[in-house]
Amino acid sequence: MPTPQKPASTPSKSSRKPLVYGAVVVVAAGLLGFASYKATSPDDSSKDTAATAPAAEVSADPSEGVYPELAELARRDAGDKLAIGRADAPVVMIEYADFKCGYCGKFARDTEPELIEKYVEDGTLRIEWRNFPIFGEESENAARAAWAAGQQNRFWEFHAAAYAEGAKEKGFGRNRIKGLALEAGVKDLDRFMKDLDGDAARAAVKKDQEQGYGIGATSTPSFLINGRPIAGAQPDETFTRAIEAAAEQAKATGAAGQAGKPAK
After folding, report:
1. Which of 83, 86, 161, 168 could form a disulfide linkage to 183, CB 3.0–4.6 angstroms apart?
2. Where do the DSSP E strands lie in the chain?
């Protein structure tokens, strides 16, 4: 299995350590990182479009395997341009992903659209994207470009273009990035190119990246569903069970979303 490259913008040493939420959660974060690395193959192997990670265990008990401290990482910012779904949705799925990751593309094409149709559109689910570039300069380019597209409200269109079948094989050099922005319907390309090279884009990507390292993620995709860690492009039913369990738990406890919660 290919060894992930070091990020082009290497986070500080402290940011690579799991956040100190307590011993149990640190162990869970470490397991997420290990499982994510073992279960995903985000390089350019042709096999990664067909394979999936082993099915994750999701207990029938909606509270089992859920860590409130991890659930608090949901930003629930109504103005977040890299999120979809109501800010007060009872369930938030945070996705840590890289545009050069084959399994991330598989999830984006095969699973995410169904989750959006089934759960986002009825108000149950909110999906919050975190840029987690771990495969070098082109990963960083794509992450900043996605953020820049988001500034013109075209993040999800850029996301679809960058994860289209065969897209990552063409790379994410500057000309390719500009072409993807056109495909995504970004109107002001001059602003887009300026934004992706700006300090704000670099800071936003670094913030997401450090959060991913902070929870112990070492590969992509990695997910948190109301604080329940899930690693890899799991089968659809894994996400369905986790989302429905989280919704049931939120209903039982009255812990629906907190609209307007300050971004972290």
Report:
1. 161
2. 83-84, 91-97, 125-131, 222-225, 228-231
Whether the predicted pLDDT of 168 surpasses 70: yes
Q: Which amino acid is at 199?
A: D
> Which residues are within 8 A (CB) of 62 and not within 5 positions of it... i.e. 6 or more apart?
245, 246, 248, 249, 252
The kind and range of the H/E element at 195 are: helix 189-196
The one-character DSSP state at 119 is I
| 8-state DSSP, 173 | -
Question: Could you tell me the CATH number of the domain that includes residue 117?
Answer: 3.40.30.10
Q: 226 lies in which domain range? A: 20-41+65-234
Measured from the Cβ of residue 30, the count of other Cβ atoms closer than 10 Å reads 14
Instruction: Determine the residue type at 188.
Output: D
9: three-class secondary structure by DSSP: coil
Angle among Cα 73, 77, 83 to the nearest 5 degrees reads 85
Residue 223 pairs in a beta bridge with 95, 230
Q: DSSP state, 49? A: G
Give the tens place of pLDDT for each residue, 237-247. 999 999 999 99
Q: What is the model's pLDDT at position 61?
A: 54
Please list the residues that pair with 230 across neighbouring strands: 223
CA 178 and chain centroid, separation: 22
Given a contact cutoff of 8 angstroms between Cβ atoms, the answer to whether 225 and 147 are in contact is: no
Q: Is residue 53 part of a domain?
A: no
